[in-house]
Amino acid sequence: GAGVSQTPSNKVTEKGKYVELRCDPISGHTALYWYRQSLGQGPEFLIYFQGTGAADDSGLPNDRFFAVRPEGSVSTLKIQRTERGDSAVYLCASSSGTGDINEQFFGPGTRLTVL
Amino acid sequence: DAKTTQPPSMDCAEGRAANLPCNHSTISGNEYVYWYRQIHSQGPQYIIHGLKNNETNEMASLIITEDRKSSTLILPHATLRDTAVYYCIVRVAWAGATNKLIFGTGTLLAVQP
């Protein structure tokens, strides 16, 4: 079946602009995660959705970052007034949200470059 | 979640077993050990997890010491496609938890032909 997809695969923007990154999770997965990965580092947790609600947004770096999942499926990560330090690969993952395994399935990521 | 320590890099000859160590000396009784890997330009991929017993699946084996302070991921016959960064992660895993993954910098395994 289809895995997690993310669009766009690459996004180049200018400092100060607004961007939206989209994640399509595996069908039926109730849990959805956003991570950010800088060069040479492991992924860093941003936010976790269970269904439509953000159950844990403790990883969002500041109020320029916001994410939604209005129907409990597709999620959009929104970044306002982008800064050069926001440049990174943004990864989305989903899981079935049941059981102790909670294996997370990752998408290929969106590479964001802020000029 | 407990912190893990892994060597930054390792080499392995193709066809040989790759043994990747991980120290997690502050692990709590309710924390599992998870392994993920990330092949270049791809998202991380789940490999295996365990609590205290050794585990084996089609990808790898996980050996956890009796005191649970360290573990080893074993790829029994490494291939060039196993070249990746391997992450050892410890976390609680229950239905009510966030279950977020806290990644370190991992071990870059380079499988040599």
Helix and strand sequence of chain A: EEEEEEEEEEE
Strand content of chain B: over 45%
Order of helices and strands of chain B: EEEEEEEEE
The average pLDDT of chain B is 93
Based on CA atoms alone, the radius of gyration of chain A comes out at 13 Å
How many helical stretches of chain A?
0
Task: Give a short account of the largest sheet of chain A.
Answer: 7 strands, mixed
Tell me the Rg of chain B in angstroms. 13 Å
Distance between the termini of chain B: 37 Å
Across the major sheet of chain B, the strand order is 1-9-8-3-4
Count of beta strands of chain B: 9
Shape designation of chain A = globular
Explain what this protein looks like in three dimensions.
Chain A has 115 residues and is mainly β. Chain A is 0% helix and 48% strand. In chain A, strands 2, 4, 5, 6, 9, 10 and 11 form a 7-stranded mixed beta sheet that branches. A 4-stranded antiparallel beta sheet of chain A has the order 1-3-8-7, with no helix packed on it. Chain B is mainly beta and 113 residues long. Helix content of chain B is 0%, strand content 46%. Chain B has no helices and 9 strands. Chain B has strands at residues 9-13, 18-23, 31-38, 45-50, 55-56, 61-64, 70-75, 84-92, 107-112. In chain B, the strands form 2 sheets. A 5-stranded mixed beta sheet of chain B has the order 1-9-8-3-4, with no helix packed on it. The radius of gyration of chain B is 13 Å and the shape is globular. The mean pLDDT of chain B is 93. At the A-B interface, strand 4, strand 5, strand 9 and strand 10 of A face strand 4 of B.
Task: Identify the notable features of this structure and list them briefly.
heterodimer; A: 115 residues; mainly beta; seven-stranded mixed β-sheet; four-stranded antiparallel β-sheet; 11 strands; globular; B: 113 residues; 46% strand
